[in-house]
Write a structure and sequence with these properties.
Layout: E1 8-13, H1 34-47, E2 54-62, H2 70-83, E3 85-96, H3 103-111, E4 116-122, H4 126-131, H5 138-150, E5 155-162, H6 169-181, E6 186-191, H7 199-205, H8 214-230, E7 234-237, E8 240-242, H9 250-255, E9 261-264, E10 269-272, E11 275-279, H10 283-292, E12 297-302, H11 305-318, E13 323-324, H12 331-342, E14 346-349, E15 352-355, H13 357-360, H14 366-369
Parallel strand pairs: 1-2, 1-9, 2-3, 3-4, 4-5, 5-6
Antiparallel strand pairs: 6-8, 7-8, 10-11, 11-12, 13-15, 14-15
Helix pairs in contact: 1-2, 1-10, 6-8
The structure holds iron/sulfur cluster.
Iron/sulfur cluster binds next to loops.
């Protein structure tokens, strides 16, 4: 079931040329410090050399990794290869913004061993892209995806967003249809949500931004799953679809299967055994810590057996891997399971419990419902 049990490595690139008004990921727009950050990431990596000797996935995310120039990205990847060992089959993913994509950059990334590209398209509709405050236009996004598709990457994925105000089912399906026309290996379809302290959350609090309600969002979700599975994609996690078993994201699957992962960079999270820890959410704080030779950790938690079980349920209900029926022990919970089966929210197969597509809509609530 696990694609592999080897740990994954994540690098959080905390730089964006501009901030999108809906985004709560940690990033700053002062890109002048990228060189310093690369040095700090490598110092942080050295601290973990013994605990994490071998990885089989490396995900350069952000933020916007494509803001790095050739020397910076080459220095980062070569430095990490000097410090850690990577399995021969390593999945090396890099996130790109459409307006950074050029033929030359793609060839360069390929020469460095990048074998999977994740492109932040969000929409192929000009009005929607403008509403989301993206730096690129829908036309630029199309040109970028064409370049990636022709650029020799067998595996590339697109990030798309639905549930925008005034977005119709028709325009969303047009975006999905356009996405499929490029032959992607993977699609991540996220629902727009109001997060943290962002311009969109301030607009929302002031009554100046209203997202579609739960029923409308649910209908779009089901429409998305129906459309993409109809086109042959595997709906393997609430927001993620793969063209085949081979093109599931090996790296992201680790997050949902309690496989260890190490996160480097400001605000990056790590997990091993029963411990989770996270770095300070500040570029200055991160650089200062590593300059002084101290760990840039902002917090940590040791998960109890009960918390681990609850997480296994949460991950199980939101993915196609499901969970073992033995996780459900009490009589009351077993009765609840039968009710959920009758309602079409879950299925029982081979001593495992799986969410149905309709069940994915309630994935966050199902663990509570069966934990009586
Ligand atoms: S959505 Fe991507 S490009 Fe926009 S601010 Fe967030 S991390 Fe940066």
């Amino acid at each position: 079931m696990n694609r592999t049990a080897l740990p994954g490595l994540y690098v959080h690139t905390p730089f964006c040329k501009t901030k999108c008004p809906y985004c709560d990921f940690y990033s700053v727009t002062k890109t002048a410090r990228i060189g310093e950050w690369v040095g700090a990431v490598l110092r942080e990596a050295s601290r973990h050399r013994d605990a994490f000797p071998l990885f089989d996935s490396l995900y350069i995310g952000g933020g916007t990794p494509s803001v790095m120039n050739h020397d910076e990205i080459e220095g980062l990847l070569e430095g990490l290869s000097d410090i850690f060992h990577f399995d021969d089959t390593t999945e090396l993913t890099m996130e790109l913004n459409p307006d950074d994509v050029t033929k030359e950059k793609l060839a360069f990334y390929r020469s460095l061993g990048v074998n999977r590209i994740s492109l932040g398209v969000q929409s192929f509709n000009e009005q929607e892209v403008r509403f989301l405050g993206r730096r690129h236009t829908a036309r630029q996004a199309q040109a970028a995806v064409s370049l990636v598709a022709q650029g020799g990457f067998a595996e590339f994925g697109l990030d798309l967003m639905y549930g925008l105000p005034r977005q119709s089912t028709r325009t969303w399906l047009q975006t999905l249809r356009k996405a499929l026309s490029f032959g992607p290996a993977h699609l991540s379809c996220y629902q727009l949500t109001i997060e943290g302290d962002t311009p969109f959350s301030r607009l929302s609090r002031g009554g100046n931004l209203q997202l579609p309600g739960e029923a409308r969002q649910g209908a779009l979700f089901l429409e998305t799953s129906n459309y993409l599975t109809g086109a042959g994609f595997i709906h393997y996690e609430i927001s993620n679809f793969a063209r085949s078993e081979k093109t599931l994201s090996r790296h992201n699957a680790k997050y949902w299967q309690h496989t260890p992962y190490l996160g480097l960079g400001p605000a990056a999270h790590s997990f091993a055994g029963t411990k989770r820890w996270w770095n300070v959410r500040s570029l200055d704080g991160y650089l200062e810590n590593l300059d002084k030779g101290t760990a840039p950790v902002g917090g940590s938690e040791e998960l109890s057996a009960g918390q681990m079980r609850l997480e296994r349920m949460l991950f199980g209900f939101r993915t196609r891997w499901g969970l073992e029926t033995s996780e459900i022990s009490s009589e009351a919970s077993r009765a609840t399971l039968e009710g959920l089966c009758d309602s079409g929210l879950i299925e029982l197969r081979d001593k495992r419990i799986f969410s149905t597509v309709k069940g994915y809509l309630f994935a966050d609530r199902l663990p509570i419902m069966v934990s009586a």
